[in-house]
Amino acid sequence: MKEKVIILIPVFNDEESLNKLLGELAISFGKFTGSTFSVLVIDDSSTDKLHIVTPPFFSLQVLHLLRNIGHQKSIAVGLAYIKENLPCDKVLVMDSDGEDRPEDAAALLISSQTNPNRIIFAQRKSRKEGRSFRIFYSLYKFAFRLLTGKRISFGNFLLMPSPLLDKVVYYSEIWNHIAGGILKAGLPYTSILTHRGQRYAGNSRMSFNNLLIHGLGAIAVFIEVIASRLLVFSLILIGISLLAILVLIGIRAFTDLAIPGWTSTVASAMLIVLLQSFLLSLFTIFLFLSSQSQRKFIPAHHYKDYTGAIETI
Q1: Residues 122 and 260 in one domain
Q2: CA 72, CA 218: separation in Å to the nearest integer?
Q3: pLDDT tens digits for 274-294?
Q4: Of 10, 48, 72, 291, which residue is least crowded by CB atoms under 10 Å?
Q5: In 55-93, which positions are buried (b, 16+ CB within 10 angstroms) versus exposed (e)?
Q6: 264 and 305 assigned to the same domain
């Protein structure tokens, strides 16, 4: 029996790139005679009508969303829809703009043959962005490592086996960031090295602000870890400040050592650090408690809040 693979592609006003991608995917996947492929396009409420030219190699459905919810959330909705409505063996998630290359998608499929029970991520070996982007991306990875204790070097270009799909759609964290949610869930994964492709048409819609929010979304997935680390950091600052103030008071009260004129300035600064650290610890505690009291969005249960018509092409 042939293995069934569904290709999940989120799209927003990118018809030209999508059609070119489908044609190149048909060529790249033609050698996988033991698999059948179908495509699920998630139309993230595009303002332009999509005219999709489907190669005979694929069957294709378009799931139209009722409103624009963004790239990551569109993928989460698509995964939940596949889990409930489209039985398959594997799901391949990739962008439509050409930066996720069809030949790398084929490499993910090949890797899955030796790692059938793992999620396979495409890790970028090389990128085509400018120096400014690479610098900020390095800072993002450093901040992610510092705040969460984990490393991240991949995005949502991935291949997922069906048993793990059945699990991942019940994690609310994928609503904000797919890769971060999978890391948080502790699901088994591996990665292969790939190259970032050249965009087929138009310009990227990911502005600096969008990239910043995207990165913060990945970090926010680990709110519990971040809260605990900030709390420990604030307590350390409180301890250092108290110790410094007590040392100054002890020298003044119990010794004959001369106290420099700037001692009062240092004591005042330590008192300010102490108060700010105390406020930081309170803020961290209330932030964590507030996040825990909010209703969790479980894609498997709530994805229908955003889905509209289903179109078969």
Answers
A1: no
A2: 10
A3: 778 777 777 777 766 766 666
A4: 48
A5: beebebbbbbbeeebbbbbbbbbbbbbbbeeeebbbbbb
A6: no
